[in-house]
Predict the 3D structure of the following.
Amino acid sequence: MTSFAGTLPGDARKTNSEETRWHFSKLKLKRSMASPWFAYKHGPPYMTGNWFGLRDKLVEKGVEITSSYVFDVLGNTTGGDYQATRYDHSWGFDSNFDLEKILGLKGLQFHFSWIWRAGQNLSMDAIKNQFNVTSIFGSEQFRIYGLYLDQTLFDGRLSIRGGRIATGDDFASSPIYWIYMNNAIDGNPISLPLNLPFITYPTATWGVRTILKPVHWFQYKFGIYNGDGRVGRMEAHGADFTLRLKRGVMYIQEFHFMPGQVKESKWLPGNYKLGMFYHSGRFFDQYLDVNDGSYQVSGMGQKKHIGNYGLYTHCDQMIYREEDDSDQGLTAFVVTTWAPANINKFPFFIDGGVFYKGLVPGRDDDIAAWGFAVGTWSKKLANSQRDNRDYNSVQAWPQGMEMMVEFTYKAMITKWLFIQPDAQIIVNPNGEGRYKNAFVVGTRVGVTF
């Protein structure tokens, strides 16, 4: 499990992503003799401290236990359906067992995590928009999350993880996304889980993921996951361990180039990714019926397609660094996704932005950021909605485009506490043209225990 200087995961989670060797340097902390209860030499300090030395002893024996709590308070001051304020929170618990230290099994770790969420959804309740203004809403309950084994081989060049995992933890993911609060960016590009069963936090499913890193500037990922989206249903509390392969299997791969990541490099650090995926399940056509006419006009069943596919790209590049070997400076990023318009709600999606770490003098770990996201609904779906309105006298608004713009500042009060004021503009909520643009303000607070 890894943490970054200047940022805590916005969704109360930890990952073992290879991208931990990113722009945010790892914390290097020394035990304070004046305050031995509060200091923690194995990583970033926690609010509960070192447990009078117990935390160190557990890590030495191969056991690491962490917990982080995040809550949001957000309100739409204008626009949307009506004005309101909502609160939600996410509390994550992680335990990692180094089986090399415990059982002598070299390079093998066992991970178990669970979460507790509660609150209300401002987007669903008051704004009526698609891009949720908070990334920590969803699955408001206590539920099991990760449960897997992770094996590294050949000095870390090969990593194999298997068990209860989420596609979104290793694919179409980046620590950059955690800087933001809107769910269109934070977590994964929102079009992926909206289009198909692309399993993301806080839901896990059976899967196997492999990472091959032959050189320091390139790695290749491949994963196979159970493609049944029902594993995330509330009544299961994350404990649906059945394997329903008849509902489809998700195959995904990612090519990841990492220039400028080593100390002696002449280039500023960056990450460039190309991902491709295929889901073998059945998907309904957005417009056609079984006879290739409009199903809204004919009243017949929607045409079914076997398989769904698409691709995504991610590019982030540091464009200004304050000093050599420093992680302070300006970074820009852009993310795109594409999928066939006849079977996907969002055939094209783009998000991106810029952020500056250490913008304010004396606040080296703070992050100031601006981001945006734009999603366009399928024209096939819009045509179907139009037919439903014109031929069935149903009140319907064909959906076109929704855009989100976010301004945020993550202030690290201590190494274990951040406060993040945030402002968002929601343009054309739900893409229908019937709700006014919304202006949302609020804050996020995160604590690592």
Notes: Helices lie at 54-60, 99-103, 122-127, 167-170, 191-195, 295-298, 379-392. The chain has one domain: 18-448.
